[in-house]
Automatic annotation (TrEMBL):
Residue ranges of domain LOB in the record: 3-105
Biological source species: Prunus persica (Peach)
InterPro entries: LOB
Pfam families assigned: LOB (PF03195)
Any one GO molecular function term: DNA-binding transcription activator activity
GO biological process: regulation of DNA-templated transcription
PROSITE patterns: LOB (PS50891)
UniProt xrefs under PANTHER family: LOB DOMAIN-CONTAINING PROTEIN 23-RELATED, LOB DOMAIN-CONTAINING PROTEIN 4-RELATED
Assigned GO CC terms: nucleus
Name of this protein: LOB domain-containing protein
Sequence similarity: Belongs to the LOB domain-containing protein family.
Length: 126
């Protein structure tokens, strides 16, 4: 009984030697299975991993399901899309801060030379 994977332990069933969930949901990390079970359901996770066209990618698929489930638990509305959107916002913020610093430096340089600062240019590309 102690050799059961986290999924079989959670579902209170015997863990067969060919358990599809066992390699990806070890008993040492029960939270990993709890997250995917909460979002997708154990049978759906097993079915997705079983029906994967490229079985050698099951580990990546299981990790993706875990990450998506974790994101969905933290943000029920947006899930992973919320994280991606935040990354784009951060990228745009960094870009804008760099443009602002460059413009301030140009203005300071122009002021030190006694010249008028150039008209602000709007860069259309992000
Ligand atoms: Zn199992």
């Amino acid at each position: 009984m102690s050799g059961r994977c986290a999924a079989c332990k959670y579902l209170r069933r015997r863990c067969p030697s060919d358990c599809i969930l066992s390699p990806y949901f070890p008993s040492s990390d029960p939270q990993r299975f709890t997250s995917v079970n909460r979002i997708y359901g154990a049978s759906n996770v097993a079915k997705m991993l079983q029906e994967l066209i490229m079985p050698h990618l099951r580990a990546e698929a299981a990790e993706t399901l875990r990450y998506e489930a974790q994101c969905r638990i933290q943000d029920l509305i947006y899930g992973c899309i919320g994280v991606i959107s935040q990354l784009y916002i951060n990228k745009y913020k960094i870009y804008t801060e760099c443009r602002l610093a460059k413009t301030r430096a140009e203005i300071a340089l122009m002021n030190s030379d006694g010249q008028e600062p150039p008209q602000a240019q709007v860069d259309q590309q992000i």
